[in-house]
Every structure is written in C-alpha cells, then in structure tokens.
Amino acid sequence: MRVIHHSAICVRDVEASLRFWRNGLGFEVTMDQRFEGDWPTLLHGPSTRLRSVFLGDPEHPASGTVELVHLGDVDGPVANDGPATAGFLLLSIMCDVERALARLADLGLGGPPRRIEAYGTAMAVVADPDGVLVELIEAGDG
Predict the structure, then answer these.
(1) CATH class of 7-70
(2) DSSP state, 12?
(3) Are strands 49-56 and 66-70 parallel, antiparallel or unpaired?
(4) Could you give the 3-state DSSP secondary structure of residue 64?
(5) What is the domain partition of the chain in residue ranges?
(6) Interval 27-84: pLDDT, tens
(7) CATH architecture designation of domain 91-138
(8) pTM of the prediction?
(9) Checking phi first, is residue 21 left (phi over 0); if not, alpha (psi -120 to 50) or beta?
C-alpha cells in the first residue's frame, strides 16, 4: 500500500504560517528542525539551509501531516482568487468548520471564506498566508 507521508508548503514567513495552521486551525507542532543540504539541487531552493516544521495530531499520526518549509527568500504568493488551474489545487482539512472559521476570523487570517453546502455537508475555502487554498470540510469534531 502506498501512503502519502506529508504535504509540504513553501512559506515565506514561518511565524505567520504557524499562526494560521497552529493557532487558527488547531494543528500541533510535531517537529521543528533546521537542515543543511543540497536544497538548490533537490528543491531549486536559494540556499543550502532550510527550516522544516511538521504539524499534525500527535495522538492520531495517521490523520496527516502538513510541513511548512522555509527555504529562504522565495517569490511571493500565487493569486488565490483567480480561476482554478492545473497542478496543485488545495489542502483539504476535516474539522468543525464554524469553529475553525471563527478562530481564523479572530486572528484576522484566512480572508473571506467561500462557503457552500454539498450533500448536506458544510464546506469553506480560505487561504493561508502564502496563498495556499485550504478547504474546510465539516467533521463536527474540530
């Protein structure tokens, strides 16, 4: 069986991203490390140093991990209010949608949510500080 270990987001500001993912959506930091390596070759990074922060649920490690990767100075965010394009679309999070949106609003994060209900399930899309779209799907346990 193939398993996706984690999804990585290249961030410009780790602290701003932590406010969104940790404080806003309730993920916990499970690892925060700095690594030296040939990141210019592997990731087209601008430096041989990077910072990697893993976020997830330590009590349920199979629930998924989001990695925030800081490679140094990288170009700014992709516009998140335009039409969908081929390639990466979004990360999807099962949560208590109303609670997550309230926390994000209190922190001034996520932007105006786009909301729908499909098949009786509440859904919303917000954006992280780097413009990554995050879909919130109602799970009721937040």
Answers:
(1) alpha beta
(2) S
(3) antiparallel
(4) coil
(5) 7-70, 91-138
(6) 999 999 999 999 988 888 889 999 999 999 999 888 889 999 999 887 765 556 666 6
(7) 2-Layer Sandwich (3.30)
(8) 0.85
(9) alpha
